[in-house]
Specification:
Helices cover about 55% and strands about 10% of the residues. The protein is an alpha/beta fold. The protein has four domains: about 160 residues, P-loop containing nucleotide triphosphate hydrolases (Rossmann fold); about 70 residues, Arc Repressor Mutant, subunit A; about 220 residues, P-loop containing nucleotide triphosphate hydrolases (Rossmann fold), CATH 3.40.50.300; about 160 residues, PCRA, domain 4. It has a six-stranded parallel β-sheet with strand order 3-2-6-7-1-8, sandwiched between helices. It has a six-stranded parallel β-sheet with strand order 9-14-13-10-12-11. A hairpin with a 2-residue loop joins strand 15 and strand 16. It is globular, with a radius of gyration of 27 Å. The two termini are about 50 Å apart. The structure holds adenosine-5'-triphosphate and magnesium ion. It catalyses: ATP + H2O = ADP + phosphate + H(+); Couples ATP hydrolysis with the unwinding of duplex DNA by translocating in the 3'-5' direction.
Length: about 675
């Protein structure tokens, strides 16, 4: 340790060791709430303040934009702005975008490539597969995604594809890639796959990046996939100056190709790896921790870990059975409202967590009824709304005019007298000439299939987009706002809404558009992005969350997946029932249900880890509930309590809420007894 450096006192010896260790690769393996993320933040501060690293030499990778933002905030408080200048704290995907923007030419892209989200990607697959069977489409999309994440190219996929459906998927995979290439577009998986592949194949690029990334830190390492593993390996090279932190019990992205084996692989790939374990949990009271430990003990474990807390026993965990999801939602809303007063807490101290996005609607309604402020994260719904996709199609076209899907959406919304026949003629010409639709406008001229009357609105549109392109490329973040306003006015989008819809929905949609534009303007200024850079930024936000503008004091609604890494004083975990948590794939878009016993066991284990993640978000109180009946496709279905409730040692049927001492050590039991006695 450099002389005169005082590490923050609020690090325990093991954490301190992890922060100070700089002799090679380091893995911190520890349970929830043990301060893994804190180690990363403190280590960045240590590198910058005491070890002479410049900001631009340090890269920290997190799992979500929100986590990246929070980490940046914390570092701002620890390190002088001048010292941290150039520091990268981002998601794997944002780093991928930056990498590809700089190295675009090496992978045959222009730097203003489009990023297609899964809705865009699905539309392409639908065209290639020529089916509307949604389950089949999603299955193919997932297969392609898994191949990409495992760095399996179509040629290799062809060799391993045995079933007719996999063979079909290979065919789609090939054409899908070709289509993306034609549009100068990449999908989310490509954001990591292309950099990893380029780094592996091109020594010059590899050396340049290795010289640049002097120290790398990775949070939530258990959820990295093969591509991300290789990316980390390539970026850090033989020097292997990195710290990874993770918890195998919190691996919840196997369905996206993540593999906890990456944790084990580190220990074999880097023989000199320093392994550090943390055992004290600083987040949760003992009852919560005991429940978490109980549940996860039903999974086979890769690594032996212990976890204890000295934050006191805490209140009994409540387990409630509800008659329906409406009643469950009402009851949660009511409880939050009264507990806020009783506990003198803030709205933001409460979180409601659920397995599936669809559960949010009923909860939102109940909170609105009681006028409780809330914010939702983990949903993609906002960016999937028609009006938002309309506006974004313009922006995407402006940034990348090879993006044919965006062209088609923009040119036909609002309608400007360009009909199907016109577009068809344009499309045939474009593909014959190997041009994008946008380029085709300017060279097609009138033909026997395209009259001057048809051509004119196309050209007007083309010139309009070109004018904005010229400005957008030249101007700054400040001007981005003006450009957005002018764009909206020029296309008369508000009028289009009121012309085509009833007043109420038109008003709603226009509000959403204004919200989007307001958010974009703030983002442009905050991160100093011009319109071009902004467009790529948006695509990334759509991926996991859009929770920038969290209301300052609001109850948090979140999926379990999106709650990873976060903590709340009071947690309500709803819908803890068989079929939902564990989610057993009764949905029609599910492929794993047919995949046999072993796959099912794996799946239950992943769901159990998800349950563990949920429980361990709670700092002080935890409330579980499940519904005896739930509406599914307009039918009421009888539900059973989740097996996880029994695994925690609780009984599930009691509507009054039960408490048991299961999972507590003798000392903790005694503490609990004392507490009960004090109360009475
Ligand atoms: N040494 C410490 N002293 C006091 N508080 C600590 C200490 N280490 C961590 N904490 C606090 O404990 C909480 C959990 O820490 P952190 O979020 O870093 O854990 P984690 O291991 O990353 O959890 P998760 O597995 O959920 O991501 C935070 O509120 C953090 O500030
Ligand atoms: Mg963490």
């Amino acid at each position: 340790m450099p002389v005169g450096y005082t590490l923050p006192v609020d690090l325990n010896p093991a954490q301190r060791e992890a922060v100070l260790y700089l002799n090679g690769p380091c893995l911190v393996l520890a349970g929830a709430g043990s301060g893994k993320t804190r180690v990363i933040t403190q280590k960045i501060a240590y590198l910058l303040r005491e070890c002479g690293y410049a900001g631009r030499q340090v890269v920290a990778l997190t799992f979500t934009n929100k986590a990246a933002r929070e980490m940046s905030e914390r570092i701002k408080n620890l390190v002088d702005r001048k010292v941290s200048k150039g520091l990268t704290v981002s998601t794997f995907h944002s780093l991928g975008v930056r990498f590809l923007r700089e190295e675009a030419a090496y992978v045959g892209l222009k730097s203003q490539f489009s990023i297609f989200d899964s809705t865009d990607a699905l539309a392409i697959i639908q065209e290639l597969l020529a089916t509307t069977d949604k389950a089949r489409l999603k299955a193919v999309q997932q297969t392609i995604s898994l191949w990409k994440n495992a760095l399996v190219e179509p040629d290799q996929a062809e060799k391993i594809a045995l079933t007719p459906s996999d063979i079909e998927a290979v065919r789609v995979y090939r054409s899908y890639n070709a289509t993306l290439e034609a549009y100068q577009a990449v999908d989310f998986d490509d954001l990591i796959r292309l950099p990893a592949r380029l780094l592996e194949s091109n020594a010059e690029v590899r050396q340049r990046w290795q010289a640049r990334v002097q120290y790398l830190l990775v949070d939530e390492y258990q959820d990295t996939n093969e591509c991300q593993y290789r990316l980390v390996r390539m970026l850090t090279g033989d020097r292997a100056m990195f710290t990874a932190v993770g918890d195998d019990d919190q691996a919840i992205y196997a369905w996206r190709g993540a593999t906890v084996q990456n944790l084990a692989k580190l220990t074999t790939d880097y023989p000199g790896l320093k392994l550090i374990k943390l055992e004290q949990n600083y987040r949760s009271v003992q009852r919560v921790l005991a429940a978490a430990n109980q549940v996860i003990s039903h999974n086979p474990n890769l690594f032996d870990k212990k976890l204890w807390s000295d934050l006191g026993v805490g209140d009994p965990i409540q387990v409630k059975a509800m008659d329906s999801e409406e009643i469950e939602a009402e009851s949660v809303a009511f409880r939050i409202s009264s507990e806020r007063v009783e506990r003198q807490a803030n709205w933001r101290d409460f979180a409601i967590l659920y397995r599936s996005n669809q559960q949010a609607r009923v909860l939102e309604q109940a909170l609105r009824n009681l006028r409780i402020p809330y914010s939702v994260s983990g949903g993609q719904s906002f960016f999937d709304k028609a009006e938002i996709r309309d506006i974004l199609s313009y922006l995407r076209l402006i940034a990348n005019d090879a993006d044919d899907p965006s062209f088609i959406r923009a040119v036909t919304t609002p309608r400007r007298g360009i009909g199907q026949a016109t577009l068809q003629a344009l499309g045939e010409y474009a593909s014959a000439q190997q041009l994008s639709l946008f380029e085709a406008i300017f060279s097609i001229g009138t033909t026997d299939r395209l009259s001057a009357r048809q051509l004119e609105p196309l050209q007007t549109f083309g010139e309009f987009i070109q004018r904005i392109q010229t400005r957008a490329a030249k101007e700054s973040a400040q001007a981005a706002g003006d450009i957005l306003d002018e764009l909206l006015a020029a296309i008369q989008y508000e009028r289009f809404l009121y012309d085509t819809l009833d007043e109420k929905p038109a008003q709603n949609r226009w509000q959403n558009v204004l919200e989007l534009v307001g958010w974009l303007k703030r983002k442009a200024i905050e991160d100093d992005l011009n319109v071009m850079a902004l467009v790529q930024h948006i695509a990334l936000v759509t991926m996991l969350e859009r929770s920038d503008d969290d209301a300052p004091d609001a109850v948090k609604l979140s999926t379990l997946h999106a709650s990873k890494g976060l903590e709340y004083p009071h947690v309500f975990l709803v819908g803890v029932e068989e079929g939902l948590l564990p989610h057993l794939g009764r949905d029609d878009d599910d492929t794993a249900s047919a995949a046999g016993e072993d796959a099912l066991a794996q799946r239950i284990q992943e769901e159990r880890r998800l349950m563990y993640v949920g429980i361990t978000r709670a700092q002080r109180t935890l409330n579980l509930s499940w519904c005896k009946r739930r509406r599914r496709a307009r039918e009421d279905v009888v539900r059973e309590p989740s097996r996880f409730i029994a695994e925690m040692g609780f009984q599930a049927g009691n509507a009054a809420g039960v408490d048991t001492a299961a999972g507590l050590s003798p000392k903790e039991r005694l503490g609990m007894l004392k507490q009960l006695l004090n109360k009475s």
